Amino acid sequence: MDNPTLIVLHGANGSWEEMGPLIKPLVPHFDLRAINLLGHGGRPVPAGLTIDSLADDLLAWLRAERIERAFFLGYSLGGYLALHLARHHPQRALGVGAIAPKVRFDEALVAHTSYLADPVRLSRPGNPRGAELARLHGADRWEAVTLNVRRLFQSFGDRPPLGDEDLKQLATPVLVLNGDRDQIVSLAETRRIVELLPNARLGLFPGPAHPLRSVPVLPAVRAIRSFIQEVIARRVGPGPGPRPGP
After folding, report:
1. Three-state secondary-structure class, residue 202
2. H helices within the chain, ranges in order?
3. C-beta separation of 85 from 72 below 8 A
4. DSSP state of 161
5. What are the Cα distances from residue 1, in Å, to 31, 97, 143, 232?
6. Which pLDDT score, from 0 to 100, does residue 105 have?
7. pTM tops 0.85, yes or no
8. Omega into 238 within 30° of 0, i.e. cis?
9. 3-state secondary structure of 174
10. Has residue 6 got a pLDDT over 90?
């Protein structure tokens, strides 16, 4: 049997390159594709981002690659995008692994994420993230990327693209992974996401999931592989039983 296709989606302000520690141990087991989201990783930066523009860009890439259905593994915003795709284009998603997806964007959270993505803060002496972003997106583009992300999260606060009813109607199998002490996505919010989703399971690891380097690679990889194997087994169904005797 061919290896199943797994699409890896990075988080806000990131690139597929940052997902390398998770990607490497998954490569032997999947037809793995990792892409840069719209306006990230050196791609042209649009005037703004919406969840629909991110999804449309991803769908266009799937069509170009002739990928009809796949599993998706997304981190943070990438997990949110994978859930959005599964909700509105369920025929595309065999299953979703979402690491620390944020679905509640209250005023305090929007203010905090806006602060984290502030180019002035990121470029201050002693903050290595500005240099990292310049390497990922280009020295002449990284500030525009962060400003787009700030506006995107602000729009989520005004009108969340995925409400409770959307999650309740998302029938695709979902694995939600998170740290039990994440500062962005609380344990209570994570449990509520799983409760709302009709076909979800929860995996927790100690500590935070933000930033990405906090995610423990081997436990996460084991959970993702197990989840996908179970989904495939359910789709295939049990093998033929023993033949009846004479």
Report:
1. strand
2. 20-26, 51-64, 77-88, 107-116, 119-122, 129-137, 142-158, 164-168, 187-196, 217-236
3. yes
4. S
5. 12, 22, 45, 11
6. 86
7. yes
8. no
9. strand
10. yes
